[in-house]
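Example 4.3 (complexes with small molecules)
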Amino acid sequence: MLRGKKIVLGVTGGIAVYKSVDLVSRLRKQGAEVRVVMSEAATKFVTPLTFQEISGNAVAVSMWNEKHEFRVEHIALAEWADLLLVAPATANIIAKAANGIADNLLSTVLLAAPKPMIFCPAMNTNMLLHPATQENLNKLRKFGYIIMEPGSGPLACGTTGAGRLPEPAEIVEFVRYYLATQEGDLRGKNILVTAAGTREPIDPVRFVGNRSSGKMGYAVAQAAAERGAKVTLISGPSAITPPPNVEVINVETTFEMMEAVLQRFTDTDIVIKAAAVADYRCHEIAKQKIKKTGDDALVLVLDKNPDILKRLGELKTKQVLVGFAAETQNLLENAAQKIKKKNLDMIVANDVTLPGAGFNYDTNVVKFIFPDGKITTFEKMSKLAVANTLLDEIKTLI
Ligand code: C5P
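Answer. The structure with cytidine-5'-monophosphate bound is encoded below.
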């Protein structure tokens, strides 16, 4: 998303300016071209020379510089930019931008640029929470500008609270996601992904579960968010860190997953059910830990769980429904049956007995199966590549 993007980075005077040096470097590594505009105050923390070397471009500070790179510098910078990013944004530049004040180069560039703008406020908590700053931030939001919420934690002034500039990697991720929501091929789509296995309690410490790691579903959620979709990931217990820019809902049992899925189904465009859902739950959950007895066997009675996907198949209106089928035998026949039984638009079938396929691997070997009997077979791919190939296919079904 950042490749070839022209970014004007406004840097204003707060201690967090040092983080912006790393930010420039990271934006460039992602393929963006960066021109830095500093306020006078910012130059007291880090010299323009540092930003010049890191950005590979001259740094602009003053309106009154005789050696201008452009003819009318503030207009030229505003025209050049695809995107303006202000990080760190002080209360001062926020106030100026919100009220149309143009009394230095950066504030003038901001006023002259009818371009997407992202502000990353960073300041003392009291300054941030002051009604004047809050009102100014709201004004910026009304103008259609984007505000990245500051982090919380220890601040340079010795207090602890909201007002920290997010880490450069987080800012880059935020900018990438913003661009994806504007330009990505899945922008505007609500996608619901389920992942990992559900667990059915036996007693307070034990459960019936399966070996699903969640890797496949998490890869689908990541790929969809990177392509600009609004993604909700409903996940059973998993050790994986969820991808950024995804709303995560953690559940444990099949019933909890069903409730979470049904709540969101109406507004969803695409459902991808990569979760390994427990088909049975304990008839009775012991209140206390079950003790070993002298008997040779312990009998657990299991009741059938509802089939979430089948329910969705019955409820479906506009939604594209994609199921997964992890099989150890008769892969194609089983998958084809599921498409019909659950009223699906396609199924991703994988034979979990193949090397490099299924639970816990970073790769998968899949076939896409469609209601008309068409089957597309793929070589072994990373789960992220499977996810992107799947999303390409789903696009043709929308
Ligand atoms: O019928 P089977 O469990 O093999 O089908 C797998 C597909 O159905 C997966 O997409 C899985 O997430 C979904 N499923 C479900 N509810 C269940 C069982 C499976 O949504 N109770």
